[in-house]
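[SOLVED] Need 3D model of a two-part complex

Original post:
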Amino acid sequence: MTAPTPLASSRMDAAVNSGGEPKTQAQLSPTVRAWRRFKRNRLGLASLVIFVTLFVLSLGAEFLSNDKPLVVRFQGQWYFPVVQTLPEKVFGGDFETPADYLDPFIQQQLHKDGNWALQAPNPYHHSTLDYFAPLPNPAPPTARNWLGTDDRGRDVLARLLYGFRVSVLFALALTLFGVVLGVLTGALQGFFVGKTDLVFQRFIEIWSAMPELYLLIIFSAIFEPSVGLLLILLSLFGWMGLSDYVRAEFLRNRQLDYVKSARALGLGHWQIIWRHVLPNSMTPVVTFLPFRMSGAILALTSLDFLGLGVPPGTPSLGELLAQGKNNIDAWWISLSTFAVLVVTLLLLTFMGDALRDALDPRKVDA
Amino acid sequence: MDTTPCLLELKDLHVSFAGQAVVHGINLRMYPGERMALVGESGSGKSVTALSVLRLLESAELQGQVLWQGQDLLQQSSPEMQRIRGDEIAMIFQEPMTALNPLMTVGQQISEVLQLKKFQAPRDADARAVALLAETGIDDPKRRFAAYPHQLSGGQRQRAMMAMALAAEPKLLLADEPTTALDASLRLQMLELLSDLQQKTGMAVLLITHDLALVRHFAERIAVMEKGHLVEQGSVSDVFAQAQHPYTQKLLDSRPSREGLAPFQKSAATEKLMDAKGLQVHYPLAVSGWRGWFQKQRFTALYGADFSLVPGTTLGVMGESGSGKSSLAQAVLGLIPCEGSMSFRGQTWQNSPARDKSLRQKVQVVFQDPYGSLSPRKTVGEIVSEGLRLHQAQLTEPEIESRVLATLVEVGLNTLEYPDLLSRYPHAFSGGQRQRIALARALVVEPQLLVLDEPTSALDVTVQKQILKLLQNLQKTRGISYLLITHDIDVLRAMAHEVMVLQSGQVLEAGPAHQVLYEPSHEYTRSLLNAFAPGDAFST
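Solution:
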């Protein structure tokens, strides 16, 4: 958790340099040993690898799913439409407006006389409206739209890819805020006990009695809906569960002998919290991370489904589910969104299970 | 003896967990009505052996034979084992609080055994349960029948456990450390009770313990285990008189000795390191009901203790659990608020980390539990150097490292044995070694007073002797004073120059060690001394 002190690290370097041997069991920190236990759980490790791969791919969604070509060679000139906004005139069109690369005329221009264009694997952005689609919307899966289109003619695959990214980023941010707030308040209550604890506990009781959903509805009526506003509102209510766990861990750890020893050595409160109590109280926090993530994804999806979530136009899994509900015949919308949600939540759950086992103090190293 | 049929015979018993052998082939015989002791230190496999007789170990692989009156228990079906457990072989455990169901009254639990094993009608079973409780010498057995485990004291719970074990009139009682969780004065009573009941019922008893004083007092035969091997067995008188195996000799020789202790002269003129007058400790006590919202009662853990410490000497504080001795330790360390006056060469606690910093360096502590006293997420180097970094910030990294290593060598840990000593984590060390690390953490800042709160009571006897010897040497070379808190009279006899006896927060007696520990003036001290060394078999 904390960086090794120069003393320990210099020793470790010496040991590694002289012998060149791997570290012995005795030299492994509890964190490293937990990681080794995690790695032994095949399902958990595979889930982590798949999830991280999907997330990294979705971070580069602009290069995977975009109506703008990645590279264009046009009349001896290089263009990079994926990062540039180019008017139609550049490619021989009539207008100053940005080029529509799905326009058959532009396509034709890009492919004659040694011109060429490198398209993204899926040639649609999540906001792309295909004005030249042959089928009415929503269109079933074809070679043109692998997973079909939604009721406004946007590509479902592109919506899913960008929606997954928004969901995971939102969940990461929400988890981060929740953990920071929860650990901070839990630590304050658990370490300083007495009046601090009493006041915080009563505050939490009152705060957790607030009707979260009504507040969300009211706020989405007052303010312009945005991802940031949603993040703030959900964070305000999302820290309390974790706070209780951290408080309980602190209450237990603060009276252990190593904390008393640290007090007897003369360390200040914050030094004791930071160096001794906190690193030993992080187990529930880490164990809950994947479950908090999946909770956050579900929360965002449900709010979007109800129309209380992200602003219109933002790619979102919940909004796709709502479309699926409204167009019950368009099975490709609901089914593919459902599959993405199930896989994401399953991966997170498997990771959480593996993490819980890895951090279980009763499990021994084999 | 060979003509009488064996009650229990272990033939080449092997026990292993997940491929790791913990008991390597044990041969042991017990005859009806015999009192036998199985002795060994922690990790020797003595409890595992006892539990495997009843096949109570899940996930253990058992090999060999456990012959109970001729039939092999390892081959029995599980319904048959259920009949044998409790009916023919009963067991009592170390911690009666966890061995009794907290949601049932003690009487119900005993009565249940009678109904299940002896098929008695509920009314008869209840009457018999009261009688059994009376037999174990519990006072007011009718009332205790209806009591829940948490309403009984530790000794009463252990008596109830015993009544439960005896309910089905077993032929063999396995007693796994039955007195370890009890205070010293209760241990002898429990052992006498066990002895009485054994003679009355004629059952055989296998006493599993690490306490040789108990063995000598109770058992006829003794079997000594070391690291899963049975190294010696024989009659108690033979083994105690002439131990054959070096490990048994080491065990018998593990009584701490006073040999290495620094001499002590106290005169009126001697400068005092520390002086306390009328030291009191109170805790707030919750009041039940709505009154508790507005007022708190006070529980007094310590009612005015007067004591002083001369440099280079040890003040021993003796008391049973609840006597206020740990409150005293924490008050001296300035970890809890206290009343009365206390000064260390003129300095007093200010109740603020910043203002207390210079005094913190002079007063250090070593706690009882070697597993709880080191943070599991810090390396040994980080743990020991922490005090130096705080108190002597001017030191450079190489200086800190050399000071840390020197201190570790002083407590008996060196880089020859553990080349990676500083980067190891506490989990890689045994209890005794951890206690040495905790000692090094305290010593590295060069304190003048070291508070030792039961420093050896969680350790095995042979390790205890080593640690005490180390403490004696450190006192001689460094001239540190110790405030030694313990319930163990052997430890006090070996270590203390002066002794203070506490009971329920009151100082009963204080004075030079030889006087208090050998010719006590107070009745309570006398009863403690008696209880601790029955018949004073080991007197030095």
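Edit: The first strand of chain B starts at residue 8 and ends at 17.
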